Amino acid sequence: MSGKRPFFLALVAILILGLPGWGWTGDPVAAPPGASQTPPDPGKILRGMTDYLKSLQQFSFRAEVTDDQVYGQGNKLQYSLDMELFVRRPDKLRVNGQGDLEKQDLFYDGKTLTIYHKDKNLYATAPMPATIEEALTQAYKKFDIQVSLADLLCGNDTYEFMMDDVTSSLYVGLNRVRGVLCHHLAFTQDDFNWQIWIDAGDKPLPRKMLVSQKLLPGSPQWTAYLTDWHFSPELADSLFTFVAPAEARRIDFLPPSKPAAPKSKSRGSKKGRKS
Q1: To bridge 96 with a disulfide, which of 43, 54, 84, 201 should be the other Cys (CB 3.0-4.6 Å)?
Q2: Alpha carbons 171 and 44: distance in angstroms, whole number
Q3: Does residue 258 fall inside a structural domain?
C-alpha cells in the first residue's frame, strides 16, 4: 500500500484509537529446562502471518477493541468497540462498528466508499478506485479516513508496514489467548511499542494485538481481540452495497484539516497516526 500510513489504522468516523506505553521493564521468563535456548525469529513468524492473510480471498472476523482515552492529569477512561469485518478480494469490504463512542458502518463495493452514522442517520459517499488497497489509500489521503486493522485486510506490503521503523523485536514465548496457544511477539519503535499474539497452529492468524503510545501523557493502550474467523462465508454483493435508510441525510466528506505549524521540531509518529 503506497504512502505513509499506520499499520493499525483507526476509522476516524467509527472510533478514536488512542495509541497506547507498556510499563513492563523486566526480562522475559526464562525458558524451562531442556527447551531450546535459541528463540524463534519474531520477524519470520510475523511474515508467516501476513503471507497467510494475503492468501485468503474472502473471509470475515470480529474484533473486540478497547481504547484508553486520557483526560486531566494523566487519568484514563477505557472505551469499547465491537467490530465485524467482511472482506472479498479484490474489491469488497464491509466494516460494522458498535461502540461506546460511535455506531457507524463502512461500505466499499468496488466503486464507492460510504460511511453511515447510525445514531445520526447521516452518511457520506465518495467514488474510489477499483481495489480495497487503492480505495483505502485514497480515502486516507483525501479525507483522513483510517480503517482499523486495514493493513491486515489489504496485503501486498503488510509485513513492510508493520516492520517499518522497528528498532528491536522480542519473542516472548508461547502463551494462550482465550484458550488458543499463540506465539507472543513484541516490537519497539521510537514513539510506540506493540505486541501481537499469533496462532501457533496450522493457521497463523492474529488473535490479539496491543499498542502502547510511549509519548502520550498517561501512556494509553489500544487492545484488540480477533475472533470468529471464517474463510468461506456467504458474502453477497448486497452486503457491500449501501442503501440509504429512510430519511437518512447525505453529507460530504471533509478534506484533511491542515495541522497547526509546530513551535519546535516534533518527534511525532513517522507513520502519521492520528490520535
Answers
A1: 84
A2: 11
A3: no
